[in-house]
Amino acid sequence: MDRRSGTRLPWHLLPDNAAVGDGGRLTIAGCDTVELAREFGTPVFAYDEGHLRARCREAVTAFGPAATYATKAFLCRAMARLAAEEGMGLDVASGGELHVCLSAGVPPERLVFHGNNKSLSELRRAREVGVGRTVVDSFDELARLEALHGEDGRTPAVLLRITPGVKAETHEYIATGHDDSKFGFTVSSGAAAEAVEKAKASPAVELVGIHAHIGSQVFRAESFSAAVEVLGRFANPLGLPELVVGGGLGVPYVEGEEAPTITQWARVLRSAAAEAGITAEIGVEPGRSITAAAAVTLYTVGTIKDLPGIRTYLSVDGGMSDNPRPVLYGSGYEAFLPRSVTADRNRTVRIVGKHCESGDLLVRDARVPADVMVGDVLATPVTGAYGHSMGSNYNKILRPPVVFCRDGDARLVVRRETDDDLLLTDLG
Ligand code: LLP
User: Fold this and answer.
1) Residue 373's CB: how many other CB atoms inside 10 A?
2) pLDDT tens, 72-106?
3) Deepest in the core among 115, 197, 288, 339, taking most CB within 10 A?
4) Residue of 55, 68, 72 to test ligand 1 pocket, by largest number of atoms within 8 Å of CB
């Protein structure tokens, strides 16, 4: 057992409508989380629907209709519908994300089509349905759009994605604004200016704006100001009506982390835009800051292995297949017991999953209540972004369900996979 003094779970990591219910149990929007685990099984993603709606509304209040939800963070039809109902546009980065949004009934003109390697067939479908904006990422894509124009005569409204040469302070894999990047047209090399000339001269596209995304999980507002300044310098002389600065607003995952709110982010962006003399409408594409803190993942503790003098391994019934972020980026998470959400957590354990891999880690040094036992429901907060969406079937583990909690009601919006689902594409 660890001898550090116990600490409680920082409450701000929980969804907006989290509360302490009967016997000290965590409730989300009136739903008892221990009951949720019983009803839907574990692992399960439990979302606070009100939290999702509140963040969407905050973004729309701050940015108007130019607030676009980045669906890669978390997408299912219920989420697509929710974001559209709250007035957001939706950013899709593949034909698959496009398909889910369309099948949710999102009006195509509200969709923004992204991607650094959109295929001809993806582009063709986007044109056929009439997506609102296409963000062009490369000269090859421009050539594809010209070829398609020859087929159908359409002239989609496009933005050009540029790389402003700003290095955001975040993990290398999720920093995208610096020059050495697979995304977009580089400003410093002159490629961005050349792309503007080509797009303007092309009858195949209607150039309406410039786009940049500097990275994800960015905590420092100054990183965004620096990007806006470079963007202004590049975009102002073009006189285009739209300027989209991407997503990337960070969220706190663990004790001690802090991030600006969406409203504060808007303030920083607006003042940087004013300073840079930008008159174009500023658009954003938040993903994580809309969904991350809206959910907790509920697991069941299956084994506790004490290695005297080394550490204690606590295995849960999920792992890197429902949250690959610790393995991919070394991301930290907190953990707690929903049966006793405000309990001191004075035992340190390593929380691991059930995959056949030593690296299958969820929380490296998790603080949990000392009385944790096999059979307990254990939760990790802030798992609403890039968990479900980056999940996998590794080891043929079944993907967890997604539950939306609202006013004491738990609505299953994505069911748990079944063994038969594993055979759906397997032709035998
Ligand atoms: N717009 C563009 C063009 C993007 O590439 C992204 C994220 C976003 C918006 C949304 O960014 P957000 O607001 O969520 O930071 N899997 C990584 C994050 C990858 C982000 C990729 N692009 C993670 O789990 O941290």
Assistant:
1) 10
2) 999 999 999 999 999 999 999 999 999 999 999 99
3) 288
4) 72
Q: How far is the CA of 73 from the centre of ligand 1 (A)?
A: 7
CA 223 to ligand 1 centroid distance, Å: 15
DSSP helix, strand, coil percent of the chain (3-state; round to 5):
35, 25, 40
**Single pTM value for the model:** 0.96
Residues involved in catalysis = 356
In angstroms, what is the span from residue 34 Cα to ligand 1's centroid?
31
Closest atom of ligand 1 relative to the 216 alpha carbon: 15
CATH 1.10.10.10 is held by the domain 11-48+293-423? no
Beta-bridged to residue 350, according to DSSP, are 313
Closest ligand 1 atom to Cα of 174: 19
Which residue ranges make up each domain of the chain? 11-48+293-423, 50-291
pLDDT confidence tier of residue 2, bands split at 50, 70 and 90: very low
> Which CATH architecture best describes the domain 50-291?
Alpha-Beta Barrel (3.20)
- 303 half-sphere exposure, CB direction, 13 A CA radius: 9
Which pLDDT tens digit goes with each residue over 278-304? 999 999 999 999 999 999 999 999 999
